[in-house]
Amino acid sequence: MVGVGRGSREPSRFIVLEYRPHANKTRQPPVVLIGKHELEEGLVKETDAALAYHELIKVKVRGADRNAMLEAAMNMAKEIGRNAPLGVQSAKQVMNYCRDKSIRDGLNYVAARNSQILRSADVIEAFTAFMQKRKPEFKGK
């Protein structure tokens, strides 16, 4: 979900990009939900959401009302919340760090973050739960 905060010179943009390659067995393109009002008012153009992805994965863009967007965002947040807290935090840190860095710097940062995560109790819990065919119980440690 992308949002431009208050005080910004640009209008607020709320876009939900849903792409789960592990769950996308039909090879359908991901769906980008953009608020209907934002599309009608020209606040968000389809190219804003799909520009970076269009050539690679042929993103399908459709207008959605605010309730559908909120529901999609909440479902995505719940899915993210079921993951290991350290992994989610690390992914956010990596994305924020890599925005304005070179590929080499980004890869070095990812390697450093991954080496820290591999020593965590949550990684051991993930492997143990997988072997025991149960849901992991992450502690954020």
- State the share of residues found in helices, binned by percent: 40-55%
Please state the CA-atom Rg, rounded to the nearest Å.
18 Å
Helix/strand class: mainly alpha
| Strand elements, count | 3
Major β-sheet annotation? 3 strands, mixed
Which blocks of ≥5 consecutive residues have pLDDT under 50? 1-19, 49-60
How confident is the prediction overall: mean pLDDT? Answer: 68
Largest sheet: spatial strand order: 1-2-3
The tally of domains stands at: 2
Number of helices: 7
Large-scale geometry = flat
H and E string? EEHHHEHHHH
Relative strand content: 5-15%
Provide structural commentary.
- The protein has helices spanning 36-40, 46-50, 54-57, 66-81, 85-98, 103-117, 121-131, and strands at residues 15-18, 31-35, 60-64.
- By secondary structure, the chain is mainly alpha-helical.
- The protein is built from seven helices and three strands, in the order E-E-H-H-H-E-H-H-H-H.
- Helix 5 runs antiparallel to helix 6.
- The model is unreliable at 1-19 and 49-60 (pLDDT under 50).
- The protein has two domains: 15-81, no CATH class; 85-131.
- A three-stranded mixed β-sheet has the order 1-2-3.
- The two termini are 27 Å apart.
